[in-house]
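<context>
A single protein, sequence plus fold
<sample>
Here is the protein in question:
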Amino acid sequence: MMLLNRTVLEDRVESAATTLTMTKYPTVMVIDDEPAILEMLEMLLEEEYTVNTCPNPVIAMQEISRLQPDLIIADFMMPQLTGVELLRTVRRNVNLAQVPVILMTASTNLNACGLTEAELKNLNAFLVKKPFDNTRLLQLMQDLIAHQIS
């Protein structure tokens, strides 16, 4: 009887491990100095992504290097390190250079943010204006991650 219980338990553990392996979610790093934005994005993304958030862009760079996320979402205007500076730093890192980056901004003027449209394109980054449409953001994320994997 005890052998049967152990076998059943081992089968359950093996099944759970297999399920966990098969359901690996893409990892997303979200950086924004506004806690409400971090919380809202985490709630929006947590069902389909492994979400890591950070309000401090300097600390976030260390976490990005450690985690090697599949996608980065960062605010344009942050203290200590702007989204543009973060993007340039990511692109200079050989291990992160291909990671898609979405920059979020409430500004309507890219030049005021320190970035031209040509540079945005050259840095392979995408701009989402706040307030953003959740459905469009999710679709952009899916497209970027699918393109990166294929």
Q: What stands out?
A: The CA atoms of residues 65 and 93 lie 9 Å apart. The first helix runs from residue 2 to 22. Helices lie at 2-22, 35-45, 57-67, 83-92, 117-122, 134-149. The two ends are 49 Å apart (CA to CA).
